[in-house]
Design brief:
Layout (H helix, E strand, L loop, with lengths): L3 E4 L2 E7 L1 H18 L6 E6 L3 H8 L7 E11 L2 E10 L9 E9 L3 H12 L4 E9 L12 E5 L5 E2 L15 E4 L2
Helix pairs in contact: 1-2
């Protein structure tokens, strides 16, 4: 494990170790299993960032739960552009179902606000949010995740699925930008 890494033109320092990340995901899985023990929810991993989070979480839940993926984007570099683009819509029918969105990080909340609204309009019975990281200081809308792995400060981070212009996703630890 490295304490410092460089991606393109930016330096990052170790912020959250893998063991802590995985432990928080295990706790979330237990909470979700308890809440949804008698339901058949649809889990939607938000690509590209949530792929590692989704895999870790789903490995701890019932194999009978359905998992699909969707992709939305609002980032370029280290800043959100504020405009949400749908790159890959949810491919499963959500009508009458509980949908749990699996997001890598909620910062401004604008992307998840857009997706939640879209799924409700499509007829989802309930839409819940599960996020690996939550940055409440960055929130720009009225959005409250149902399941939070870790509350973090408002630093730009990479690793465990999170990236800087496509780089750093496969890191097993999370690193924060070193300004």
């Amino acid at each position: 494990m490295q304490d410092k890494i460089r991606l393109k033109d930016r330096d990052f320092i170790l912020y959250i170790r893998e063991e802590y990340i995985v432990g928080s995901i295990a706790r979330m899985a237990a909470e979700i299993a308890l809440d949804l023990h008698d339901e058949n929810p649809l889990f939607v991993g938000i690509l590209n960032g949530a792929y590692m989070f989704a895999a870790e979480l789903m490995s701890r839940l019932s194999p009978e739960y359905e998992l699909t993926f969707a992709a939305y984007s609002s980032y370029r570099g280290i800043r959100s552009e504020g405009v949400v683009k749908e790159l890959l819509p949810v491919g499963s029918d959500v009508r009458g179902r509980t949908v749990i969105l699996l997001e890598d990080v909620i910062d401004t909340g604008l992307t998840m606000q857009y997706v939640v609204s879209k799924l409700r309009e499509a007829g989802a019975a309930d839409v819940r949010l599960a996020t690996m990281l939550f940055k409440p200081a960055a929130l720009k809308c009225d959005l409250k995740p149902n399941y939070v792995g870790l509350w973090t400060r408002n630093d730009f981070v990479v690793g465990f699925g999170l990236d800087y212009d496509g780089l750093g996703r496969a890191l097993r630890h999370i690193y924060r930008i070193n300004n």
